[in-house]
Design a protein that fits this description.
The protein is built from nine helices and two strands; from the N terminus they run αααααββαααα. The chain is 67% helix and 2% strand. The chain has a two-stranded antiparallel sheet with strand order 1-2. It is an all-alpha fold.
Length: 180
């Protein structure tokens, strides 16, 4: 039954986000991550498009050109870069994400890979996904640089970054953008 499979997939994803958020000191972010996925607006639509191998929101967007679940989700979850955009009629303004949300976004991306790939998870697939994603993402350049450093470091070391690396990379990109 899709109901149970979808519920389990959400829980597996949330568990990985919690695990990774705890590793970088963002315990509360990990606890409250994606609670809105259990709301009727998100859960029912996602249940309809559930396949188990990719996001049901992407499937809905492919079929309809939009997703009401996504509109609901991104507006309530500041770990999505789309939350940090404005002025759509004037070409879209990308706002720099605060450290805790940008870090949670990275944890979310890795957790999605873990949830959907399972035992086949690998850092090469993750960095390949990121390289493709950042080409079209409407994201502040500093946020892109920060996430870039995290993905590159993870891929090179074949492991999740340490808490110290998260802070170091953030300070590096912050200094770069402060001097510009």
């Amino acid at each position: 039954m899709n109901f149970l499979k979808h519920f389990k997939k959400i829980c597996v994803h949330k568990w990985w986000v919690f695990y990774y958020c705890c590793k970088c000191g963002l315990v509360w972010q990990g606890i409250k991550h994606d609670i809105s996925k259990f709301s009727p607006t998100e859960f029912i639509e996602s249940l309809k498009y559930y396949k188990g191998t990719s996001s049901p929101i992407d499937a809905c967007k492919k079929e309809n050109g939009y997703s009401l679940a996504w509109q609901h989700h991104k507006g309530r979850n500041p770990h999505h870069y789309e939350y940090w955009t404005d002025n759509y009629d004037s070409g879209t303004t990308c706002i720099k994400m605060p450290f805790k949300y940008a870090t949670e976004m990275f944890c979310d991306n890795i957790a999605a890979g873990r949830a959907y790939m399972g035992k086949d998870f690998n850092w090469k697939a993750e960095i390949d996904w990121w390289k493709k994603k950042k080409e079209t993402a409407k994201m502040h350049p500093m946020t892109i640089d920060y996430i870039d450093k995290l993905f590159s470091s993870s891929y090179a070391a074949e492991r999740f970054p340490t808490k110290r690396e998260f802070i170091f990379f953030w300070l590096c990109v912050e200094r770069k953008y402060r001097s510009n």
